[in-house]
Write a structure and sequence with these properties.
Layout: E1 6-10, E2 13-17, H1 23-29, H2 41-62
Antiparallel strand pairs: 1-2
Helix pairs in contact: 1-2
Amino acid sequence: MTLTASVRVEDGHAVIRIPLAEVHGLRVALAECPCRAPKSFETQGIRQRLAMALGRLQAAADGPSTHRRA
């Protein structure tokens, strides 16, 4: 089965579905830009929250870890 990305509206939320194999690439794409051009603090927060959520999802998909949050 070929997994493809999709976007849809579900109960008033935008739902983005991507294959787990593409999660790391999306996190890299969401990383802070090294340029010093003006950025919106709001969009920066959105990128950070999405990247963190994807990291938790990826960690959960990879299985139990020896790393614990302090």
